Amino acid sequence: MERKKILLSGLLLGFLGVILVRFGNPANMGICVACFIRDIAGGLGLHRVETVQYLRPEISGFILGAFLIALFSGEFRARGGSSPLLRFLIAMAVMIGALTFLGCPLRMVLRLAAGDLNALVGLVGFVFGIFIGVQFLKKGFSLGRSQRLHTANGFAMPLLALVVLILVVAAPVFIFFSESGPAAARAPLLISLAAGLIVGIAVQRTRLCQVGCFRDLILIKDPHLLYGTIGIFVAALVMNLVFGYFKLGFAEQPVAHTDGLWNFIGLAVVGLGATLLGGCPLRQLVLSGEGDTDAAMSVLGLLAGAAFAHNFGLAASPAGVSSAGKIGVLIAAAFLLVVGFAFSRSDFNVKRKGGITHEQSV
Amino acid sequence: MSKAYKLDVRGLSCPEPVIRVKKALETNKGGLTVLADSFVAAENIRRLVGTLGYQCKTDTNADDEFVLTITKEV
Q1: Which of A266, A340, A338 is closest to A96 using CA atoms?
Q2: Within its chain, how far is the Cα of A233 from the centroid?
C-alpha cells in the first residue's frame, strides 16, 4: 500500500515535470528546485543575470501545498534549533554544486528521462556523494536535535512563500522578469502554481526524496523511496516520448553542458550536502512548509547560494564550467567534508571563561 | 528480563532515528521502547523494525509524542 502510494506520487511528479515543459517551462526543466530558486534569487534582484530572473510560482506552491496538507492532516509542528547556521551554509554549498551540474536531483531524473546522458554521469556523482555522507552518518554524524517552537515560527516560511506569490502576481517595478533565456520560458502562472501545490501535497504525504532514495538503499538496504524515483523516471520517459522531447546523447542537450568531470563533482557535492541536511532540496522545501524552521534555513541557504553563485560567476552554463566555478565547487566540497568530520564527534572542548570562577565561588 | 531499554530520538533529522534504533536493537535483541516526535521518524522506524522481524505498537503520550514499543515477534 505504502509502496503503491510512493510509486503513484513519483509517476505524478514525472508527469507534471514534462507537462510543465509542454505549457512553457524550459526544456527538461519542468520542475527544478535549484534552477527555480536561482530564478527567484534573480527575480528579487539578489543577482543580476538577466536570463534567470523570475519568481517561479512552483516553489511557493511546493511550500504552501505542504503547509496546507500538513495543517489538514495534523502533522504541522513548529520546530527548529538543530544547527540552523550550519544548515544555511551547507545548503549554500549544495546550491553551488547544483549550479555546476545545472539542476537539482529531481531535474537530474527528468534530464535522464529525456535521454540526456550527462545526467547519467551526474547520477554516478550524486550516488558517490551520498555514499560519502552515509559514511559520516555511520560514524555518528548529527547536526543535533531540534526543539518544539512557538507555532508562529512555523508560519514564517509559508507566509514568505505567499509574499513571493503576491509579488509575482502584482509585478511591482522592483521585481525582475527575464525577457530572454531560461527564465523567460514559463508555464502560465496558475498552471505552475497548481502543479506546485499538487507536488507539495504529494511529497508531504509520501515523504518522497531523491537523497533518501539512495541513502536508504546504501545504509539500510531499504528500497521504499526508490519506487518514487522510478515513478518519476518512468512517467517522464513516457511523456517525453509522447511529446517527442526524447533525444539520446551527450551533445546539445537543453540547458546542460558536457563536461563530465564537473557534472560528477557538482552532483557529488549535492549528494553529500543533502545527506548531511537529511533530505534533497525538494524535501527541504516541503519540510519548511510543515513547520520545520531548520529546513527553512536550508531553503534560505539555497537562495543565498544561488545569488552568490551568479554574482561571483560560479554557475555553469551550456558553454561549460568557468574556472571560478571549478574553484567554487571544490571549496564547497572541502567545506562539506570538514562539516562531516566535525559533526561526527560529539563536541569539541573549548576553554571557557565563566562569569563566576571556581576560586571566586569558594 | 531487565527493564526495557528506552531510546529517545526526538528532534533528530532523517535518517538518524532509524540508525539509532537499528544500533540499539543490536544490543537489545529482545526489543525496546522508543520516544519519537515526528510522523516521519515513527513511520521509518516501523518500516525498519518490520523488516528486522519485530512488532511495533504505537501510542501517543500526553505531549503528542510517539511511544513505539518494539518487541520480538513470537
Answers
A1: A266
A2: 18
A209 domain residue, yes or no: yes
Residues 6+ apart with CB under 8 A from A83: A143, A144, A294, A343
Name residue, grid cell 512488532: B55
Identify the band that residue A1 occupies on the pLDDT scale cut at 50, 70 and 90.
confident
Q: Which three cell numbers stand for residue A33?
A: 528546485
Domains of chain B: which residue ranges? 5-72
pLDDT at residue A348 in the model: 80
| Cα(A43)–Cα(A133) distance, integer angstroms | 33
The model scores a pTM over 0.90? yes
Give the nearest partner residue to A215 out of B11, B15, B43, using CB atoms: B15
pLDDT of residue B2: 45
Whether A95 is covered by a domain: the verdict is: yes
CA dihedral A102→A103→A104→A110, nearest 10 degrees, is -150
- How many structural domains compose chain A? 1
Q: What is the mean pLDDT of residues A53-69?
A: 98
Q: Does the ipTM surpass 0.90?
A: yes
CB of B72 less than 8 A from some CB of A: no
Query: Is A69 in contact with A77 (CB distance < 8 Å)?
Result: no
Report the residue of chain B nearest A144, measured CA to CA.
B12
Q: Which CATH architecture has domain B5-72?
A: 2-Layer Sandwich (3.30)
| Confidence category of residue B3, pLDDT binned at 50, 70, 90 | low
Name the minimum distance, in Å, from the CA of A144 to any CA of chain B: 7
